Structures
1.
Amino acid sequence: MSDTNESKQAHWDTIFSAKQDAELGWFEDDCSQTLSFLKNTAISASSTLFLAGAGTSKLVDELINTDANLIINDISAKALEQLSQRLNNTKCQYLHHDLGHSFDKGFDKGFTVDVWIDRAVLHFLLTEKQITHYFENLKSTVKCGGYVLLAEFSNAGATHCAGLAVHRYSENEMQVRLGDNFELINSKQYTFVNPFKQERPYIYALFKRRQ
Ligand SMILES: C[S@@+](CC[C@H](N)C(=O)[O-])C[C@H]1O[C@@H](n2cnc3c(N)ncnc32)[C@H](O)[C@@H]1O
């Protein structure tokens, strides 16, 4: 990893080392908002799901119950370590990678997924180069007929999270960056109330890749 990558990883590792889950500003005990969008994606035991920047999210525990294959990503080795110890599930694969960098660099590009799920990760990528790499990674990975769920701070949302600036999203910007091969299925403005009782407006949008 480059110096920049190492400092980003260190930032997140420090957070996951210092705090319990319920002390994290994005912690969700109840993942039903995300799960309600995923109901439209026909997840089965033969599906492969990509969890971008999964952190230590309880969503992963819910998705294990579907028997799908999970590829669990994060820039933080600490988060992946904590999650793998908690899950203790041999079916999960872990991918330690900064999604602002191309999968070409140091990772076998050969995998494909049925559903790409991102809650509160994409919005931490700030430069055009990082954002472009993220969407290239997504497009090289999601199968035709597969789905993408993006849940990011909306334009009405906070400007910072976890001590970092964020790039806020509209449904339109998501669509433009995904391109015409992705069709919007459903979207919703959703205000998440975090463990500190602060309101965090998100935009949730589910897209389907055309056949
Ligand atoms: C706000 S937390 C959200 C965690 C989880 N998705 C959830 O909803 O609980 C952001 C997560 O993204 C990870 N992350 C931040 N930048 C990343 C990057 N460039 N590539 C991969 N993961 C990243 C962090 O380590 C952290 O786990």
2.
Amino acid sequence: MTQEEVLEVDILICGAGVVGLAIAMTLAKKYSVAVVEQHPGPARETSSHNSGVIHAGIYYETGSLKHRLCQEGNRRIYEWCESHSVDAVQSGKLIVAFDNSELDQLQEVYQQGIKNTVPDFEQITMKKINDLEPELNVAGALWSPWTGVVDAYNLAKSYERAALEANTIIAYQHKLTNINKLGSQFVSTLTDTNQHISTIKSDVLVNSSGLMADQIASMAGYPLGGDEKKGLPVLSQSINRGRYYDIINPDICRLISRPIYPLPDHQAGGLGVHLTTDTNGGLHLGPSMEWMNEDEIPQYQNEPDEVWLAAFLDAGVRFLPHLKKEHLAPGQVGYRPKIQKEGEGLTDFLIWRDKGYIHLGGIESPGLTASLPIADQVKNLID
Ligand SMILES: Cc1cc2nc3c(=O)[nH]c(=O)nc-3n(C[C@H](O)[C@H](O)[C@H](O)COP(=O)(O)OP(=O)(O)OC[C@H]3O[C@@H](n4cnc5c(N)ncnc54)[C@H](O)[C@@H]3O)c2cc1C
């Protein structure tokens, strides 16, 4: 956009990640919609730096948004991928106990999955474990046949296409730099890469800015610490790094056919370093759980590091006893926007509305899986 331009739309969405684009295509059927995104294309941050797993809703607190939207998203994402030519594989996944000492906790995960009515979730026999994954040497496993993997970047591209077909305006390489209110209208300032300024006026502002959601909320005038008396939720976010190591030996990659998860580490805030397949036959170990300092800036390079290499090898040999250092290379790095702080355990997604402002906070995993139902939630709030 040029300096003089002022655009007026019903809804402005900040963020062209998988969630922002799902919201855009959903709302554009009924409203005029614009999306502002600082990068040159869609899904350049968390939406393309993740495990790409289509989760089945096993771990989350029963009835939470994560549970309900993940489970609905699981079904819908397979349908969407089928009808929009996005690669997705319903591989199923195993959650394993490596030795007898882990069997009680495996039982707890099973009970949570049953409580969450995860379809066809079962405890399986050693024979079935062996049939599914002959290389695994474990004491027990749970089988989730509806878990799968998706090409996350192309999923976002397919949402982008649908949004554009429904006449959404997407302003790439424009950063949302200021938000003012004029009556009930939002007057948002966009700055492009040449420092040109433009303005978008909208009745609704949807903050789907991922890692920056708290900063955008602050720009819109909200205190980040929350205020119970005023009905303001905590909007501040902490960032948690998840790094991966890729398994680069094709013979080793061929040994495993589906994601294999250890027991989750809810206290640490994650599902534990797992083994993930992708839609291209690749095999990856990750993600780590690394709480970042407030002043640290996410870097998407995963520099070779002997300490991390040793840590990933330790995690990897539990799944693949023949894994060696030379089979591993630094993979991608992703960043989780978390509402909770270190040691606080799991929290839910935050989808919060204050008049025309809609805030999406803590959209970590399973945000990819839940992207379509999250978009419906936002539409319901606006409708
Ligand atoms: C390590 C890791 C593994 C994961 N694994 C899975 C998984 O297996 N399955 C699953 O379902 N989910 C998974 N997730 C979660 C999933 O990736 C996210 O929930 C999802 O990608 C969030 O999408 P988003 O659109 O909210 O955020 P993002 O993709 O981060 O998009 C936000 C966008 O907002 C833009 N933006 C921010 N500020 C501004 C501004 N001021 N102006 C303009 N643009 C701005 C950013 O550039 C960015 O593109 C994982 C996440 C991580 C980190």
